[in-house]
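Support case: phosphoric acid mono(formamide)ester complex. Customer-provided input:
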Amino acid sequence: MAVNMKAKSLIEIHHLSHEEIWQIFDLSRTLKEKRLTGESHKLLEGKKLGMIFSKPSTRTRVSFEVGIFELGGTGLYFNQNDLQLKKSENIHDTAKVLSRYLDGIMIRTFDHQDVVDLAKYGSIPVINGLTDLHHPCQVLTDLFTILEKKRVLKGLKLAYLGDGNNMAHSLLHGCSKVGMDISIASPSGYTPVDFVVKESLENAKYFGSKIEIIEDPVEAVKDADIVYTDVWASMGQEAEALERKKKFMKFQINPELVRNAKDDYLFMHCLPAHRGDEVVDEVIDSSNSIVFDEAENRLHVQKAIMALTM
Ligand code: CP
Ligand code: NVA
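Agent response - structure generated as follows:
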């Protein structure tokens, strides 16, 4: 049964129901097929999406901009430095003003609370294009991509190695909402935040998945269907890169480590990848790797998200 997501913001996967997640997947599949066959799908004719970035981006920017264009609308790019936002104007006022011009806002920024506030004070849907806490569009895309490849989600095991960052948090929310097991191996001091783990454990109880937060990379990867990693120093943490490299080296995804996963395991990475750090060429360029399908699907899944909410 279709659920109405009109005007709903997408701030974190935890706020989505199981039905809403599957509705996004269904529409993503339809839109992907239509694009492939050249069938018109201008579901957002004349609509305007504002895209605010205070961090760099390749995939998110291009896929949202191309996505809104293909749906018949227009994307407006704003570097946050060029806006009055958080300089001479508070979020409250910016949210109210942008709501008078636009039909939706996608924002990539540091502080998760800024996205929450933008949605709270504005009257149009806000889509989180990455904060320090979450990256929901990426993980919805990842789950959709796994579903395409494996045909199921429930019962699969995803191993995530590395920093307990925005990707780890959204993967915890995402896997636990679709009944996938998730095993996270991070160095001590770099584990996911407790409240996200707690929220995910509640989902897991309901949807029947297992969650494991450990320090042993071999144990995490053991019999995994999906092996996932991300950069060791995220945007904004560049100064810590060297120190992190030393602490994270044993979490590198290399041929020796992936021998512990299932033979038909999939390698995933949200990209950009720091080859030679969190993953080596032999894995990311192997036939198990689906990183470019994952990147392509950002387009289809975000088109579905925009079409459903705007
Ligand atoms: N995965 C991802 O969000 O990539 P960008 O930083 O290039 O947008
Ligand atoms: N954790 C990374 C993800 C990039 C898509 C970052 O925040 O920089």
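The first strand starts at residue 48 and ends at 53.

Case will auto-close in a few days if no follow-up is received.
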